[in-house]
Amino acid sequence: MAAKAKARMATNPPSKGGDEMADEYGEMTDAGDTCVISQLPLECGTSLSNCEIRYKTWGVLNSNRDNVLVVCHALSGNADLESWWGSLLGPGKSMDTSRFFVFCSNVLGSCYGSTGPHSINPATGKRYGSTFPRVTIRDMVSAQAHVLRTLGVTSVVCVIGGSMGGMQALEYALTVEHPPTRSIASLCSNGRHHPWQIGISECQRQAIRADPDWRGGDYEPSAPPKAGMAVARMMAMVTYRTHPAYWTKFGRDTHDRPSHEQEVFQVEGYLRSQGEKFLLRKFEPVSYVALTEAMDTHDVERGRGDYFDVLQSIQIPALIVSITSDVLYPPDEQMELANNIPNAQHHTIQSWEGHDGFLLEDKKVGTLLRGFLAQIAPRSSL
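Now predict its structure.
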């Protein structure tokens, strides 16, 4: 009996008293300003005409126009940083708006204001749908840099992002010459998408495509493939968290139901509700497919030479952060970055929250960002 109790303690995290599983996002909208790019060249060889990028800013651009923090969102994020990292933003906080001009844009291919598959193709007057060109992480970064130049930014203090946002931070360091960045912070990400992540994303895409309403990506806006989208989100929510966290939150508890109805575990109800909530956020299934495919293209080596040589070419300071329990982007992938980027520092956050810890462990993330930015941009320098 003692041995069994000891095993349970080693496996499971401390109980949090039955709290609900925390949500990583607040209200998601397409609010913000819009920059129109007349012609945006893409890696695939084509270009997008009148490409719109939705963005938001906080703080004031200084006279040198170089006090800028660029924050890049993850797969299902938007330009409204306050909706998902709001506790880090504001006067005196980690992203100190009394010092920094903070910029965040909705990525190319998304559905919260920027041009994506749901947008109207100016050449046809119809939604792009399945004809939307395949975009990459580098294309996203290229569009963001264009907006920054339009705003007159001369230099960036730091490009910050987690998950897909961390991929953008790495590519910014390698791709963008103007405005240059003095540092990057990449959380729970990697230098190339691995078969593990590609396989998980493909399962989610196939769930969407299996919905009869998918119609090859050319579904009616009024009749999207809701069932497939909900299942894809349910799959994702399993990979974003951990085995111990699910046990602590749900155990084998069930919902109270009449005796003649089939038993439903609380974890089943949770995942179903997450699928439903994602639909209420109006995330476009065709954008979900496009963005997960863009993440699969992520490989800093592509067209640049040896993978490790490319990482070693990043000479600016880099903050690399891991979550101990991340099963989607395991800590060894961040260790690989830290061991090969010459001026990198690596920090590990102890957490049972899994991959979503980069959003949910906001106090710990904020402490790391505050310390790193103090090194990169001491108060006397801005």
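DSSP finds 13 helices and ten strands in the chain.
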